[in-house]
Design brief:
This is Flp pilus assembly protein CpaB. It holds the Pfam family SAF. Residues 1-25 are annotated as: Disordered. Residues 59-124 form the SAF domain. This protein is α+β, with helices and mostly antiparallel strands. The protein folds into three domains: 1-52; 58-122, Type Iii Antifreeze Protein Isoform Hplc 12; 136-222. 32% of the residues lie in helices and 23% in strands. It is built from five helices and seven strands; from the N terminus they run αββααβαβββαβ. The protein has helices spanning 3-51, 86-92, 100-103, 146-151, 201-207, and strands spanning 58-64, 79-85, 136-143, 157-161, 167-178, 190-197, 219-222. The strands form two sheets. It has a five-stranded antiparallel sheet. It is rod-shaped, with a radius of gyration of 40 Å. Residues 183-187 have low confidence and may be disordered.
């Protein structure tokens, strides 16, 4: 064997060894770059999470599950509970917000839209009846005139007559209309809540007590003026 052939063998062996080593170094470099990019992404995500404000506290709020007419007697399925930001609840309802369970059997004083909160101010109570004055008495007058009662709105003025046409009171203010069928089944007459001056209470009570069972629908005339 010549000296030249003996001297070239180690060079080929060194090249054979160096090639895998270079590939391994390249692979490690790529892996290091991938890991560096992943760690950088995690750092950015952690930073954004740390900067994100804490979730705003919420409170349960009863809202109307559908459009409700004025004077509607609330049932359990008329109201649902949703979560609102606590700051909005305090602005809209304040303290003493009723729960959905406590609203069944209560009556709304005015129309309530679907999704609108049912607050204490929307319920029919002496404090929320509009148009009352000192010395007024709130009376419920049965009326079987469906066409007229559907037209009545809080603030309207009506004249009250008995079944014989005798006037009992004039110009009394309508506070709310309770739809027919709310209290005693689908055939029950609608009721109109009115603010009556004390001087007319006796006459109005007589007008509504002349029917069978001691109660008769009164005749209402809307003051168009």
């Amino acid at each position: 064997m010549s000296a030249r052939s003996r001297s070239s063998r180690p060079a080929r062996d060194e090249r054979a060894v160096s090639r895998p080593s270079r590939r391994e170094a390249t692979r490690r470099l790529r892996l290091r770059r991938v890991l560096t990019a992943a760690l950088a992404a995690l750092a950015v995500t952690a930073g954004l999470t740390a900067m994100r404000p804490a979730p705003e506290p919420t409170r349960p709020v009863p809202v109307a599950a559908r459009d409700l007419p004025a004077g509607h007697l609330l049932r359990a399925d008329d109201v649902e509970t949703v979560q609102w930001p606590a700051r909005l609840v305090e602005q809209v309802a304040g303290e003493g917000q009723p729960t959905a369970a406590s609203l069944a059997g209560r009556r709304v004083v005015g129309p309530v839209r679907d999704g609108e909160p049912v607050t204490t101010a929307r319920l029919l109570t002496p404090a929320t009846l509009p148009g009352t004055s000192a010395g007024d008495v709130v009376l419920s007058l049965p009326s079987d005139d469906a066409a007229l009662t559907e037209m009545l709105r809080p603030g309207d003025r009506v004249d009250v007559f008995d079944q014989q046409g005798t006037p009992a009171a004039r110009g009394v203010r309508v506070l709310a209309v309770v739809p027919a069928g709310d209290e005693a089944g689908p055939r029950a007459a609608a009721s109109v809540l009115v603010a009556v001056p004390r001087t007319y209470v006796g006459a109005v009570a007589s007008a509504r007590s002349g029917g069978p069972g001691g109660t008769a629908p009164v005749v209402l005339a809307l003051d168009a003026g």
